[in-house]
Amino acid sequence: MDTGTAYDLTLGEPLLDLAQVGRGTPYGEVLRRYWHPVAKVENATTRPIPVKILGEELILFRTRKGKVGLLHPRCIHRGASLFYGGVEDEGIRCCYHGWVFDPQGHCLEQPCEPELGLHRDRVRQPWYPVEERYGLLWAYLGDPAKKPLLPRYDTFENLADGEQLITDDSGVGGGGPALLDFNWLQHWENVLDPFHVPILHARFSGNQFTPEMALIPEVTYEYTERGVRSIQMRELGDGRSLRRVTEVMFPNMRVVASPKLSSGQTNMIGWVVPQDDTSFVIFTIARDTDPDFLRKLRSTHDGKSWASLTDEEHQRMPGDYEAQKSQGPISLHGEDHLTTTDQGVAMLRRMMAKQIRAVAQGGNPPGVIYDEADLVVPIEGGNYFEGDLVGASQTAQP
Amino acid sequence: MDTGTAYDLTLGEPLLDLAQVGRGTPYGEVLRRYWHPVAKVENATTRPIPVKILGEELILFRTRKGKVGLLHPRCIHRGASLFYGGVEDEGIRCCYHGWVFDPQGHCLEQPCEPELGLHRDRVRQPWYPVEERYGLLWAYLGDPAKKPLLPRYDTFENLADGEQLITDDSGVGGGGPALLDFNWLQHWENVLDPFHVPILHARFSGNQFTPEMALIPEVTYEYTERGVRSIQMRELGDGRSLRRVTEVMFPNMRVVASPKLSSGQTNMIGWVVPQDDTSFVIFTIARDTDPDFLRKLRSTHDGKSWASLTDEEHQRMPGDYEAQKSQGPISLHGEDHLTTTDQGVAMLRRMMAKQIRAVAQGGNPPGVIYDEADLVVPIEGGNYFEGDLVGASQTAQP
Amino acid sequence: MDTGTAYDLTLGEPLLDLAQVGRGTPYGEVLRRYWHPVAKVENATTRPIPVKILGEELILFRTRKGKVGLLHPRCIHRGASLFYGGVEDEGIRCCYHGWVFDPQGHCLEQPCEPELGLHRDRVRQPWYPVEERYGLLWAYLGDPAKKPLLPRYDTFENLADGEQLITDDSGVGGGGPALLDFNWLQHWENVLDPFHVPILHARFSGNQFTPEMALIPEVTYEYTERGVRSIQMRELGDGRSLRRVTEVMFPNMRVVASPKLSSGQTNMIGWVVPQDDTSFVIFTIARDTDPDFLRKLRSTHDGKSWASLTDEEHQRMPGDYEAQKSQGPISLHGEDHLTTTDQGVAMLRRMMAKQIRAVAQGGNPPGVIYDEADLVVPIEGGNYFEGDLVGASQTAQP
Question: Which GO MF term does the entry hold, naming one (chains A, B, C) (predicted)?
Answer without folding.
Answer: dioxygenase activity
